[in-house]
Design a protein that fits this description.
Helix content: 25-40%
Distance between the termini: 49 Å
CATH architecture: 3-Layer(aba) Sandwich
Oligomer: single chain
Strand content: 15-25%
Number of helices: 9
Order of helices and strands: HEEHHEHEHEEEEEHEHHEHEE
Strand order of the largest sheet: 5-4-3-10-11-13-12
Largest sheet: 7 strands, mixed
Shape: globular
Number of strands: 13
């Protein structure tokens, strides 16, 4: 149904109040076409409930693939004014709309970083398909599909430039439209050092074997917990477009 209705929805991007859910009344700068679920407050319910159980005041969290800022705004409320949320959004226009939403909501604890994360040695430029304000590597490049040019860097390279002498990381949320393995590869040092809580949304085409092998190498359990369980979760499976939480098997030192 959404597939057929979405083209009919308004595409004008402007500040709008979220109409329901945990963030009801907050500002979100987006369009009904791009993010109707966020504006209705119906999206990411299970993820926000997971945040409520694991995010603490004063924490530092990373929101990798922040889009228009819905989950970043939720995280910012939970970490409070003494905490920090670093958001990474590679599409410059989308990052700008998120920063406007941050300003309207008075969330000074959010730092908007207009950068994609991956595993290059330093910084590189990529061309990726654009869909509803997101750079989406799961989509094929086609003549009629919009394309966006985005900067991509390795987190372990960029983090020392951002943390201002406070490098500790308590949690990481990753939702990067097919670049999950590359993003985690680029933050191996930080994950190994700080052992943050980790929640990853998996998308079509992502090699589950590579992902689990990487997490195992870094020191995370591969016995993931489904954030939004479906059916019998005792049967190990990783569904597309679902978030999974991974715990470190040892504490940070």
């Amino acid at each position: 149904m959404r597939h057929w209705l979405r083209p009919l929805l308004p595409r004008t991007i402007r500040p709008r109040h979220i109409l329901g859910g945990p963030l009801r009344g907050a500002w979100l700068v987006t369009s009904w076409h791009d993010y109707s679920g966020g504006l209705m407050g119906r999206t990411e319910r299970a993820l926000l409930e997971w945040f409520q159980r694991h995010v603490r005041p004063g924490d530092t969290w990373l929101d990798v693939g922040a889009h228009y800022g819905y989950t970043a705004f939720a995280l910012a409320r939970m970490v409070g004014p003494r905490g920090r949320v670093f958001t990474f959004e590679p599409v410059a226009a989308t990052a700008g709309y998120m920063d406007r939403g941050r300003e309207l909501n008075g969330l000074v604890q959010i730092a908007v970083v207009p950068l994609g994360l991956g595993s290059p040695e330093a910084l590189e430029i990529r061309r990726l398909p654009l869909a509803r304000g997101m750079a989406d590597s799961t989509l094929p490049l086609r003549a009629r599909r919009p394309v966006v040019t985005v900067p991509v860097a390795r987190f372990d390279w960029v983090w020392p430039l951002l943390h201002k002498g406070e490098p500790t990381i308590h949690g990481v949320k990753v939702d990067v439209q097919g670049m999950e393995v590359e993003v985690l590869s680029g933050m191996r040092e930080a994950l190994d050092r700080w052992r943050p809580r980790l929640v990853v949304e998996l998308h079509a085409g992502v090699d589950r074997g590579r992902l689990l092998a990487l997490l195992r190498e870094i020191g995370y359990s591969t016995a993931a917990v489904a954030v939004d369980p479906i059916g019998d979760e005792r049967i190990p499976r990783f569904l597309d477009d679902r978030s999974y939480a991974f715990d470190s098997v040892r504490r940070a030192t």
